[in-house]
Amino acid sequence: MEKTYTTKPSDLNQKWHLVDAEGQTLGRLASKIAAILRGKHNPLFVPHLDTGDYVVVINADKIVVHGNKLMDKVYYRHSGYHGGIKSIILRDMMQTHPTRAITFAVRGMLPKNRLGRDMLHKLKVYAGAEHPHAAQQPQPLEL
């Protein structure tokens, strides 16, 4: 009688991937990164474990958005006080904090629980071509 295999945390071997965001569309790039962070590319994938890999994104300031999204897409946050809602459009965010656009897009595609927060910690986004993760030897990933 054969038993069903269940993935255990000790079976996982997390890798590091390097993604160049130059010329990539924001949403399409974010969905592929979210799948890698979740571990959907891995044959050992189970939904209740963090089976994903680490992802280092470089050149985040050179992403592409189509249509009027630069002016129409609005990000909101609230301080918790009355009248404390703040908003920023994508164009202004790309000028001040270009890494946040990719982070927010990927965060929206991950589970909304502790597991999703742990997966988001494995995402490293940098505006330029330099990153401090050379010691981990990230492998270039073509998306």
Structure in a nutshell:
The protein has 143 residues and is of the alpha/beta class.
Number of helices: 5
Strand content: 15-25%
Share of helical residues: 25-40%
Which structural class do you get from the secondary structure elements? alpha/beta
Give the integer mean of the pLDDT values: 96
Main beta sheet strand tally, sense and closure = 4 strands, parallel
Please provide the ordered H/E string of secondary-structure elements: EHEHEEHHHEE
Radius of gyration: 17 Å
Q: What's the arrangement of strands in the largest beta sheet? A: 5-2-1-6
Residue stretches low in confidence (pLDDT < 50, at least 5 long) are none
CATH homologous superfamily (4th level) name of the domain at 16-65 and 98-131: Ribosomal protein L13
The CATH architecture name of the domain at 16-65 and 98-131 reads Alpha-Beta Complex
CATH class of the domain at 16-65 and 98-131: Alpha Beta
- Basic shape: globular
Total number of beta strands: 6
End-to-end distance = 41 Å
Describe the structure.
This protein has 143 residues and is of the alpha/beta class. The radius of gyration is 17 Å and the shape is globular. It contains five helices and six strands. 29% of the residues lie in helices and 17% in strands. The protein has a domain at 16-65 and 98-131: Ribosomal Protein L13p, Chain: A (Alpha-Beta Complex). The chain starts with 15 loop residues before the first strand and ends with a strand. The relative contact order is 0.23.
